[in-house]
């Protein structure tokens, strides 16, 4: 299917790109790898006035180690380049998250910032234009109704980023640039509960970098999907912990692809920090997952299955951590 009519712009620098964003008179869509944006435009989910390519901006390509030991990753870096980068050898959980994205062919094009800013997905919205026309529009496509939850006042489409849970488990931050300067936002604060306005990035901003704190924690990453390398996840999990064996004083557990924003399980982690990673405590932590996640409402799979897979992934990830 052909793309809807639009203007195309490819500025030579980040400054020029930010200027175009600030001065734009209509809707502008950023294009990096294009593996998601172009597909959704063909499906008529996006109809921007301008497609602004930031694909080859040199300011978005750098990977460097900072003075405090943290690592700065350019948001325009290709996923296949990052998964082989020497500076990420100390982040095996992140490498697993990078390799979980689609196929090698997609990762050769897809970018880090693009994956973190993937549009949210919904069983009702992510269909053909003809299917949506028969069903009728929704909160995500221009009307004040949600087909997933009739009483919802905000969109409950799902966050589909495979990499976000891994970066959240590492307590990463992102850098957003505009003509007014830069601001740094913890990734835990970057996503919202609204499937339409699903990040705090403003229309005049571009994500330029991801900042990884120096890491010595063990980490587990699991993606559950129908067909590896082909489908979006049913669910993902990333979990990190300090210490060894049963001992830990710091734990982060993040579930992805189940809710509108990646779910950071603070109460579940607190059980483990207090009592360790023995079998009894892991069982108790798994028991916290249902209440902490709450209702799982946007149904690519049945709600009961989502609850079961969330608990199973938490159990498996914690057992993997204990073995490291």
Explain what the structure shows.
The protein is of the alpha+beta class. Among the domains are: 58-117 and 158-212, Uridine Diphospho-n-acetylenolpyruvylglucosamine Reductase, domain 3 (2-Layer Sandwich), CATH 3.30.465.10; 220-323, Enolase-like, domain 1, CATH 3.30.390.50. It is 30% helix and 18% strand. It has eleven helices and twelve strands. The chain has a five-stranded antiparallel beta sheet with strand order 4-5-8-6-7. The chain has a four-stranded antiparallel beta sheet with strand order 9-10-11-12, sandwiched between helices. It starts with 6 loop residues before the first strand and ends with a helix.
Spans with pLDDT under 50 lasting ≥5 residues? none
Ends distance: 48 Å
Count of alpha and pi helical runs? 11
For the record, what CATH class of the domain at 58-117 and 158-212 applies?
Alpha Beta
Residues in helix, % = 25-40%
What form results from the Cα inertia axes? globular
Name the helix and strand elements from N-terminus to C-terminus, one letter apiece: EHEHEEEHHHHHHEEEEEEEHHH
**Major pleated sheet:** 5 strands, antiparallel
**SS-derived structural category:** alpha+beta
Count of strand segments? 12
In the CATH hierarchy, the architecture of the domain at 58-117 and 158-212 is 2-Layer Sandwich
Strand content: 15-25%
How is the largest sheet built, in terms of strand order?
Answer: 4-5-8-6-7
Measured on Cα atoms, how large is the radius of gyration? 20 Å
How confident is the prediction overall: mean pLDDT?
Answer: 94
CATH topology of the domain at 58-117 and 158-212: Uridine Diphospho-n-acetylenolpyruvylglucosamine Reductase, domain 3
């Amino acid at each position: 299917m052909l793309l809807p009519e639009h203007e195309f712009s490819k500025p030579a620098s980040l400054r020029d790109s930010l200027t175009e964003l600030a001065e734009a008179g209509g809707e502008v869509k950023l294009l990096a790898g294009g593996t998601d944006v172009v597909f959704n435009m063909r499906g008529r989910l996006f109809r921007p006035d301008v497609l602004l390519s930031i694909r080859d901006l040199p300011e978005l390509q750098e990977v460097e180690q900072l003075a405090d030991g943290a690592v700065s990753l350019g948001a325009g870096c290709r996923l296949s380049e990052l998964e082989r980068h020497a500076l990420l050898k100390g982040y095996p959980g992140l490498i697993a998250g990078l390799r979980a994205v689609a196929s090698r062919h997609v990762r050769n094009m897809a970018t880090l910032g693009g994956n973190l800013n993937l549009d949210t997905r919904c069983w009702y919205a992510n269909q053909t234009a003809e299917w949506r026309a028969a069903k009728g529009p929704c909160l995500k496509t221009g009307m004040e109704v949600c087909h997933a939850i009739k009483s919802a006042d905000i969109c409950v489409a799902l966050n589909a980023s495979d990499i976000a849970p891994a970066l959240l488990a590492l307590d990463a931050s992102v850098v957003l640039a505009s003509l007014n300067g830069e601001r740094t936002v913890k990734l835990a604060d970057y996503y919202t509960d609204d499937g339409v306005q699903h990040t705090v990035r403003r229309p005049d901003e571009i994500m330029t970098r991801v900042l990884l704190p120096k890491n010595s924690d063990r980490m587990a990453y699991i993606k559950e999907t129908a067909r590896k390398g082909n489908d979006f996840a049913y669910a993902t999990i990333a979990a990190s912990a300090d210490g060894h064996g049963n001992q830990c004083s710091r734990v982060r557990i993040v579930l992805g692809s189940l809710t509108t924003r990646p779910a950071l399980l603070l109460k579940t982690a607190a059980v483990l920090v207090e009592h360790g990673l023995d079998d009894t405590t892991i069982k108790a932590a798994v028991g916290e997952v249902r209440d902490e996640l709450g209702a799982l409402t946007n149904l690519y799979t049945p709600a009961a299955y989502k609850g079961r897979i969330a608990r199973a992934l938490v159990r498996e990830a914690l057992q993997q951590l204990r073995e490291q």
